[in-house]
Amino acid sequence: MAVEHSADGSGESERAAGSSSRSGTDTVQSLARGLGVITAFDAGRPRMTLSEVARRRGLSRATARRLLLTLEQLGYVRTDGRDFELTAKVLELGYAYLSALSLPEIAAPHLRRLSETVGESTSVAVLDGSEIAYVARVQARHIMNVAISVGTRFPAHATSMGRVLLSELPDDQVRARCEAALAHPPARRTVTTLDGLRHRLAEVRRSGWADVDQELEAGLRSVAVPIRDARGQIIAAVNVSMRVGATEEHEDPLRAILPALRECAGAIQQDLAASGAGGHQDPAIAARGGV
């Protein structure tokens, strides 16, 4: 059984590698302190002196100096001789985390923020044949909600996310995917002809977003925008959905939601680009976290 030794000679206990214990003696205090020094820097304190770092993290000047010089040697910190600041290399720490994430994991925190901002349910879906499959969702806290969860599937032509996902496909693919489903509308207002669907998809291409008003279910509206990969291809869609009763106080609340929705899609795209999950992968594979 291998034994881990303290690399910095600062007196941390040696412990057997692989021990199931998580007591304080199993942790490396100098590592924790080093990470604490990194997180001491923020937008309000992008540059600090040795004394300021020590004071902010409750360290002695000698300990803070050793940690800062070690971080400087590793390339995470630079100094002009008086002030210290982080370098761009600290982004690699976040990249290592992002590179292990799948589309649902990357989208989740952004969906939560969007839901909190607009006060409605938010979702991400991918296209699978003639249907969309929900891969991430945050449910708003309302008395009445539509029962949708990860894995739920709906006909693509009747949903805002589906129309976004269909909008840039060749016409023959739209026909192959949707012609049979058009004959079985889920609601009274659902489009039922290929020409009608083509017209709506053309509107999505022009505007960059899709709005579906009670075509999936009576009383339900939603608006969606695309999530694109590094090549600009649509790999998923993100939406906000609400009951029609929630729209009565405003002339067109879904249009008012668009700026926040687009911001959410952009943030997801940035994280996908950083992780590599939004590169050349099939969206269904990225959604599962596969390679």
Using brief descriptors, characterize the structure shown.
single chain; PcaR_PcaU; 6-stranded antiparallel β-sheet; WH-like_DNA-bd_sf; 10 helices; disordered N terminus; Arc Repressor Mutant, subunit A; alpha+beta; glycerol metabolism; 291 residues; Beta-Lactamase; elongated; 2 domains; 3-stranded antiparallel β-sheet; DNA-binding transcription factor activity
Question: What does this protein structure show overall?
Answer:
By secondary structure, the chain is α+β, with helices and mostly antiparallel strands. It has two domains: 29-91, Arc Repressor Mutant, subunit A (Orthogonal Bundle), CATH 1.10.10.10; 101-275, 2-Layer Sandwich (Beta-Lactamase). Helix content is 41%, strand content 19%. It has helices spanning 29-40, 50-57, 61-74, 91-98, 103-118, 160-166, 171-182, 194-207, 253-275, 283-288; strands spanning 3-4, 15-16, 47-49, 77-79, 83-86, 121-128, 131-138, 153-155, 210-213, 220-228, 234-243. Strands 8-7-6-11-10-9 form a six-stranded antiparallel sheet, with helices on both faces. Helix 2 (50-57) packs across helix 3. The longest helix has 23 residues, at 253-275. The chain is elongated, with a radius of gyration of 25 Å. The two termini are 33 Å apart.
